[in-house]
Design goal:
The complex is a heterodimer.
Chain A: E1 2-5, H1 13-25, E2 31-34, E3 46-48, H2 53-62, E4 65-69, H3 72-81, E5 85-88, H4 101-111, E6 116-117, H5 121-131, H6 149-160
Parallel strand pairs in A: 1-2, 1-4, 2-3, 4-5, 5-6
Helix pairs in contact in A: 1-5
Chain B: E1 5-10, H1 15-21, E2 30-36, E3 49-52, H2 61-78, E4 82-85, H3 89-101, E5 104-108, H4 119-127, E6 130-133, E7 144-145
Parallel strand pairs in B: 1-2, 1-4, 2-3, 4-5, 5-6, 6-7
Helix pairs in contact in B: 2-3, 3-4
Amino acid sequence: MIFLTIGTQEPFDRLIKTVDNLAGQYKNYRFVAQVNSSKYEIKNMEYFDFISPHEFDHIFKESKLIISHAGMGTIISALTNKKPLIIMPRLANLGEHRNDHQIATAKKIKELGYVYVALDEAELAANINNLLTQSEIPIKKEIGSFASEKLTSSIRNYLDEI
Amino acid sequence: MLQMKKLIAIASVGGHWVQLLRLRPAFLDFNVIYVSTHKNLKETVNDKTFYLVTDANRWDKIKLLICFWEVLKIMVKEKPDAVITTGAAPGLCGIIIARFIGIKSIWVDSIANVEELSLSGKIALKFANKVYTQWPEVSDSKVLYFGNVLS
């Protein structure tokens, strides 16, 4: 299964369309998409709007590859679940987000080598074509269940003063 | 027996919420009350009190007012000792209310803000006791950096 998730904000038809086209080419894979308020008519994927966190986890774990917007929720879920993820940032001038912070996030995530990153549709399609040739897609990094100990102990120390 | 102190932990659905849950080791000494913007998130904090509030942003002033009112009601009812949030709008409401009722508050800016503090984070700087960024480049004399939620 290949899982596409665009998060809980604005529509992101550019990403959905690119992946839907790929789904048309890869009939041997089951493509599942979490979308919202999409104007684009999906032809080649199963899709839904919002599912429970438990169902989301289940689909996540069953997937060979996850494709998403550059949202930290999905990025962190992929890193903790040790699943390969490729992200593409939303652009403000196309009405995909209120500002362009996802570009900066995506570039930083790429620089630090956390997950696969594509900055536009062409790069995304090329990357997915390449990744799907591999029987098992390697993950780039994994993380534990909690924030850095430095951060949590700094917060805890401050809270303990109360 | 000494009653545990109360902490209200607020985050909007999505990345903010995922990041908040990763801070849980910091909350061990507290009775934590969670506040978020999607009802399905309750199942991720089963054993804890969970409140649902309206999601809002600065472009929708009416929802922002409703959200502020809902967070205010929760804080009046629960009488927390402190507030922590990873954003966005409902968390900022909590930080502002905390200032006016005289309790401590902590803003942890989302890791998605790699170049500068989020707009909400900049407002939070005026009201919160502690503001953390997750990127060393964004930190300064008022904005703390102690690593990030990825670890």
